[in-house]
Amino acid sequence: MAFNSLNPLAEALKIKDLIIGWRREFHAYPELGFEEFRTSQIVEENLRSWGYKVRRVGTGVIADLSGGDGLTIALRADMDALPIQEENDVPYRSKVPGKMHACGHDAHVAMLLGAAKIIAEFSHILPNKVRLIFQPAEETVSGALRMVEGGAVDGVDFIFGIHVWADLPSGVIGLKEGAFLAGAGSFDIRIVGKGGHGAAPHEAIDPIPIAAQAILAFQTIVSRFLNPLEKGVVSVCSVKAGEAHNVIPNDVVMKGTYRFYSDSVAKLIERKVDEILKGLTSAYGATYELRMERTALPVINDSKAISYVKKVAEALNVKTFEIPATMASEDFSEYLQRVPGAFIALGVKNESKGIIYPHHHPKFNLDEDALPIGTALEVGLVFHDYSSY
């Protein structure tokens, strides 16, 4: 495969310093979901200067470039950061207290900007039409739907997204056909008892032991009610109650997440959480409030799209590996509900450089030598001849 006489990896390596520079710029000034004003402005200014037709969807950016009579291929990058205080000692560490690109979205934007620049330079031999989607608010799993409602995938034939992957060696492409990432939901629970003196628990209705038993009981949903051949997770991630050493609080507030790959598993978890709370609070004379909301659907990669990625990676002499499904979630699923495509992992782990920390860790970092590979893959996917399959 010659990509119409274009060598995507060679072109990406030519602008490697530029891609890294963008990544570090975005890393130093992280913005949370729907607050990506600075990031999206930089993206838009560059795209317009390269000849793209640009439109905004809030803090999101959609850019189109016409090529030949082939398919319309969309590439997506998410832009938002996390509310985490960075602990890396690097020149480009976050300058915004309490905010950090701890998931690699800064790299996603930089790689796609690099791809956009190369695609524009070679637009005269571009066989397909290109749609670039710079999405806000992936971490709150609401940005993709906003972009879809703004027409991001209208007329698109295939969509591809790359996510840097902390578990894979730097530069390796990880692929998973079919079910790849889990669906996700969130829950908010308030157990209401009756406050009182810590020395007189018999005169109160203590919500704390009720909450403790509920947390343990939730773990039996997966271990005792779910078919062992299916996948599910229930995790309580926040518990808040009381302020004093000698006061039984009136209530306990808990927050958490649940994960699933099928509607039946999601319904099982939702039903059992409610039943457990109902039984425990009834036994102790307390009450409860429960809100459960599904926030993301499973990411299901299209088999044909995965085969295209393999072909492009092979032409670039980049290694691909089949990776296992994970219980992490991603709102890229919103696009895949409407358009066939693939969500791709790009390895960024490098133990020799001390780059070993997982996503969402305050010391998360990535091997920037992998970034041109991601850019080259994105370029290759839009220059790929889809008519030959």
UniProtKB/TrEMBL annotation:
Q: Which Gene3D superfamilies does the record associate with it?
A: 3.30.70.360, Zn peptidases
Function, as annotated, reads: Can release basic, acidic, aromatic, and, to a lesser extent, aliphatic amino acids.
Q: What is this protein called?
A: Peptidase M20
Organism of this sequence: Zestosphaera tikiterensis
Output the NCBIfam families linked to this UniProt entry.
Answer: amidohydrolases
Family of the protein in this entry: Belongs to the peptidase M20 family.
| High-level lineage | Archaea, Thermoproteota, Thermoprotei, Desulfurococcales, Desulfurococcaceae
Q: Oligomeric state and partners?
A: Homotetramer.
Q: Which residues bind Mn(2+)?
A: 103, 105, 139, 163, 360
Q: Report the Pfam families cross-referenced here.
A: M20_dimer, Peptidase_M20
Cofactor mode of binding and number, as noted: The Mn(2+) ion enhances activity.
What does the record give as cofactor? Answer: Mn(2+)
* Residue ranges of every copy of the Peptidase M20 dimerisation domain listed in the record: 183-278
Q: Name one GO molecular function term.
A: metal ion binding
Q: What InterPro entries would the database entry show?
A: Amidohydrolase (IPR017439), Bact_exopeptidase_dim_dom (IPR036264), Peptidase_M20 (IPR002933), Peptidase_M20_dimer (IPR011650)
Q: What keywords appear on the UniProt entry?
A: Carboxypeptidase, Hydrolase, Manganese, Metal-binding, Metalloprotease, Protease
